[in-house]
Amino acid sequence: MDNVGQPRREYEDRIVAFIDILGWKEMICASERNQEKQNTVWAAMDLMRTPVSLWDYVKDKADALPRVVASQFSDTVVLSDEDSIDGALYLTKATQDLCWSLLLKGYLTRGAIVRGKLFHDGRSVLGPALVEAYLLEQSVARYPRIVLAPNVASGLRYKYRHYDGSIHAATLVREDFDGVSHLHILDAMWVRHFPGHQGVWTAQVRRAQDMVKGILTKLRRRSGGAQKLGTMAKYQWMLRYLRELSELLVAESRTRKPRSKNGATASNKPLKRS
Questions:
Q1: Residues 6+ apart with CB under 8 A from 80
Q2: What residues contact residue 151 under an 8 Å CB cut-off, 6+ apart?
């Protein structure tokens, strides 16, 4: 039977982020009789339903922006955008904002970003790209990081032009100790993009460090076997990463180029991939 009157459905070339919230099941079980934990769960769900981005800041400056589509089910969020340079930037920025916001709520996230064929309209999502992202999250990510497929990581190492004409080298990608490339969830390029916010981000990093240290202290006091050690390993990884972020923020603030009166940097190189 033909689907007469049904909207046309077909795979598109998209970039997709599959994001899993670690410890969600335990939090849900604990929230049944704990109002504070319930409030934390509701706040996390609101973040998952409406991922926000600093890109909203420049929406009135752009002619035609890609649109990030979001779906949330249980402890998983799927974000996708068109497979283009702009689409990749918007998708990764929305992913950064979501993961960082959840971290400040006490949740670790793990996932993957891939490029490929996908159908995603906000209600339904399926396609080979989703399967690949899920498999990367399950078999490669291991730690609370957003793994980047090789063709995504290479596409995020480039120079881009800000709407004020200034040129910036993107620092979206970090290579981990095991050779896996993953997304910076707080990116040092935003120190250059919005230098006045550095104090805010530095304070947020310190807040996140204190939170992770507190969780590790509680975990050490608990009894437990392999599961406890696995959870501690994830928080230890995050603590090392946050320390590196703190150092990165300081380094970027020291090396930021001086800006002219109109806000642009002295550099005026054409937009290109490095």
A1: 14, 15, 16, 17, 68, 69, 91, 118, 120, 125, 129
A2: 115
CA 245 to chain centre: 14
Task: Encode pLDDT of 78-118 as tens digits.
Answer: 999 999 888 888 888 888 888 888 888 888 999 999 999 99
DSSP state of 268: -
Superfamily grouping for domain 12-188: Nucleotide cyclase, GGDEF domain (3.30.70.1230)
Domain-wise residue ranges, the chain? 12-188
Report the DSSP beta bridge partners of residue 175: 181
In this structure, the dihedral spanned by the alpha carbons of residues 255, 188, 171 and 55, taken in order and rounded to 10 degrees, is: -120
Quote the distance between the C-alpha of residue 157 and its chain's center: 16
End-to-end CA distance of the chain: 51
In this prediction the pTM is 0.78
Task: Give percent of the chain above pLDDT 70.
Answer: 72
Spell out the SS3 assignment of 41-69: HHHHHHHHHCCCCHHHHHHHHCCCCCCCE
Largest distance between two CA atoms of the chain: 65
Q: Which of 21, 27, 30 is nearest to 51 (CA)?
A: 21
* Nearest alpha carbon to residue 239 among 260, 254, 219: 219
Phi, psi at 262, each rounded to 5°: -85, 5
